[in-house]
Amino acid sequence: MRYPTIVAVALVAAAGCDLFNNTLEVQNPSNVPAGGLETPANAQLLVNSAIADFECAAGAYAVMGGEITDELIDATQTADRYPYERRSMVSSDARYAVNGCVGLGVYTPLQTARFSAVNVLSLLEGWTDAQVPGRDTLIAQLEAYEGYSLVLLGEGFCSMVVSTLDASRTTVYGGEIQRDSVLRLAVAAFSDAITGSAATGQTAIHNMALVGRARAYTDLGQLALAKTDAQQVTSGYVRYVTASTISTRRNNRVWQENSATSDATTLDTAYTNMNDPRVPFSDKGRNSVTGYHLFQQLKYTQSSSPIRLASFDEARLLVAEADLAASDFVHADSLINIFRARGGQSAITSTNPDTVKAALVDQRRREFFLEGQHLGDEIRFGLALNPPVGTAFKGGGTYASQLCLPLPDVEKQNNPNFP
User: Fold this and answer.
1) In whole angstroms, how far apart are CA 336 and each of 296, 325, 365?
2) Which domains does the chain show, CATH number per domain?
3) Which end of the chain, N or C, is less packed with Cβ atoms under 10 Å?
4) Could you give the C-alpha distances from 333 to 303, 357, 365, in angstroms and in order?
5) Rounded mean pLDDT of the chain?
6) CA–CA separation, 258 and 230 (whole Å)
């Protein structure tokens, strides 16, 4: 992917803008070279812009993952959205590959977010503390967000390309790597953030990076390491992907797709039958144009509602997952029961690994409803697909079994490492 310019107006409103544009996009004559804006005086602005890139990408990822799994059902008549819902994504599909985050693209937005962080980190590492007061603090923040971009790329894609910058700030194009390699890069980014945040006393970023590294370790099957990290997270900690009414790009993406004013998606009965306050919804009392009954999620009631990214609650459920793997059923049950109580469910006391696993998955499904977690869970736990493969799809064809997104053709076409 190439990111040759920065839009000047974008930097003025950095809270809602991509820093780096894909070469497939038309370049506006009013654009100015990035170098003119990449100065120490703009360090905080550049960091904010990189974080805003991630937040928009994360919102799109939450919707995409919701449609691929059974959280959301696509209720539109827009055919190029159907591969998500139908689990039939192929590398030539344009929406997920090249669309921006407002249009539910995920590859370009996540790569833009990741590369924005890499680019600004490179700048910060080349500047001095005198030029940028609090430089180490900004570096640790960006490392944590880079880690989360990599986690989402690793969880959601079948394989990946991770391009970087060399010492001269020239793009070094990566080759195709597998999911586990991407997650290891996430671990490395989070490790740097953990070290840096500890040194600079940033408790919030330290917790964010601990949860992120625990999540990456869990995806890698390194559950003992995940537990060690998760147990260090401060009680009550939470970090959000922020949203705003300032522009469509800054809107909560789930709200944009499912709200009082949007019928683009509806909810699956797996959720509407839960009777759990963590899965709030209302019945719109009508069907979509494609025949799906419409339910409105009420978890995000405004365009400015934030989406949870990392939390002490997630850390506890990651500990429970590690306990399950270690056959410590008593402790796993005790943690799971904390969450079951939230949903008005009775406590479990089981030493059957299948029973405990089912209870854990159920609590993760409820607790992280529409937060961009369930796609990774379906892949990691090998959950049964809903609807099953072969079920007729209202938009035509049948449901398939593709969960991860293929490396898109656009990457191969723009990357010199591919023939």
Assistant:
1) 28, 14, 12
2) 43-254+305-313+369-414 (1.25.40.390)
3) C
4) 37, 10, 16
5) 92
6) 32
